[in-house]
Predict the structure of Beta-ureidopropionase.
Amino acid sequence: MAEQLVSVEHVLEKYIPAEELQEVWSVLYGRKLRCLELPGCAVDSASQHGFELKGYMFDAASEQLRKPRAIRIGLIQNKIQLPTTSPVAEQVNAIHRRIAEIVEVAAMCDVNIVCFQEAWTMPFAFCTRERLPWTEFAESAENGVTTKFCQELAKKYNIVIVSPILERDESHGETLWNTAVIISNTGAVLGKSRKNHIPRIGDFNESTYYMEGNTGHKVFQTAYGKIAVNICYGRHHPLNWLMYSMNGAEIIFNPSATVGELSESLWPIEARNAAIANHCFTCAINRVGTEHFENEFTSGDGKKAHHDFGYFYGSSYIAAPDGSRTPGLSRVHDGLLIAELDLNLCRQTSDKWNFKMTGRHEMYADELAQAVRPDFQPNIIRE
């Protein structure tokens, strides 16, 4: 049942009368977005290769002193392509081929920046807590086969690529990290951003593979705007979004891998709220499907051992600083979500709401500095 639900939007369109549906959309998703007119060749290719293709536009008001700063971004969600028991190299190559098909369609649609889901080259095996063969998927962020693959795509299509991988840091004792590699439209590796927050839920603890990142809150100046990457579990931490924004991010990508029972009720809220609170665009990307593992494992929830982590529900979406958002991609199918953004909307929204001007950051900085001290006492007034 839940796994058969294609999307919330599909249900609403099916059962709500047309004359009421537009008002429902505005209540749920903010101002109505125009649909992008996508090239016929892209629509045909997406249909031929069996993935969903959607496109929307976020407009901004015209200004006297600034020209519109319109760019197009693409989010890709996908299933793994081969069983988890297949040889590692074959699994990676199969996913590379699948992503190449989807990126080609993104290029047909004039996408400038594309972001893949968390640990996109592999099954989400961190739930199993086994080392082999899963650590064999780890690669160098600078010289790995996946980075080289993405560099070729970036140069071919003049596109910036955000590629979240399991990184093997060869310069520091082959330490593993959960890392997003940012590749310029020229094909150069612009840099990398590591996952700041790691889930410890029951006995599901990703720190058995890697620890919290040490790259802070980097923002990358690309040819198309300033971007940051808040990987998966970091979306639950408002200060994490805040610091990317404080460093100037206009778009914050949130590549994720999360399952229904764990987080689906949180999913439509967190990235959208971050866009509102931080006057920037946010992009939530989640994989789809169920991934079966040969050996059973438990999740610390009192349930019997099982062979899968749960159902990855897709539903990738993009939110704007004014609180509007796109409908989500499907809960069950691979997909490419494209949005044309006018980045001028970031400053326009900031000028309207003034969250950063009224943020009182100096007060919070002082109180947080006190709160992390070992001798801290909560400021509670009693009779």
Observations:
- The CA atoms of residues 360 and 366 lie 10 Å apart.
- The longest strand covers residues 160-169.
- The radius of gyration is 21 Å.
